[in-house]
Amino acid sequence: MKSLRPTTLRRRVGAPLVAGLAVLALAACAGNSADTDEADLGSSTNQAESGSNDEAGDTVVIGFSAPQADHGWMASITESARKVAEQYDDVELRVAEGTNDVNLQISQVETFINDKVDAIVLLPFDGAAMTPVALQAMEAGIPVINVDREFDDPNAARVTVLGDNYGMGVSAGQYICSQLGDQPDAVVAEIAGIDSLPLTQDRSQGFEDALGECGLDVDARQAAEFTVESGEEVTANLLQAEPEIDAIWNHDDDQGVGVLAAIENAGRDEFFMVGGAGSANAMRSIQADDGVLQATVVYPSTQAADGIKLARLLVQQKAMGDLVEVEVPRTVQLYAPVVTADNVDQFIDSAFES
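The structure corresponding to this sequence follows.
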């Protein structure tokens, strides 16, 4: 992907960072803390006004499948889906056991098809591998809501709910520009996720493009594996190689636990760090101002919860209440806001635990 010219970048990311943070976009339609029982995940049908989208209707049976909850963000994906379903008296959610086995996930969807559920919300372990069975569901008249990892064929889903990986990089880069834009010689480092994944490539490209807007670039980069152990290992290597750093962007707050451990072990504090995904422990550190972590960029773990709400609307033949259109949109992409000490209180109650 080529670097974008300044006007093109502004067109892609919309309003500047400050305006974007004020708007907060659509991402906050559901909470996502697995440990917060009181998190508000949307209106309950018991409290819905007559004629509203949340008013109880015919029961909707929704099948849900996602990968194994082997890290905090993924655990919150499933927990948030459960919580939002529980807030609707007219939703029956059937949750398949989380799995990283593609063949098992295919069989889960086949079971939903055979059971004639009303809709399927699916976060694929592998979008390409799950495309054929998703097409089968659609051909059987069961709408599929594709979450986070896209299918190969757009016809395999009625609705796709996505985070914004490119936008995460842009938000992180714009924030660093706001802090270091008057220091053209500032040293910026990046701790990425798995380099072979398109999501990592998109995050890195957005980061590079945004830094270029203020004349900065990525001076040092290490790729980790989205785990605590890998985050600690690659950060230790980066710190040994770079005697002076002004800012670090870490793509993922789960691996950030290891990143911060390596920074503490090295006794380094001359730089500030921006996290990624928006975990509760990262936000608590930002609140406490107790280390180098100064901000994090949200990648919502509410996507499946939004998928449940959209599935319900589809089956009940309703539209999104704040839109003029009479049909649910085909694609919903959530915003990637930056969380700092100034606005952390707006986000921490719906954050996931790493």
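Confidence is low (pLDDT under 50) at residues 1-38.
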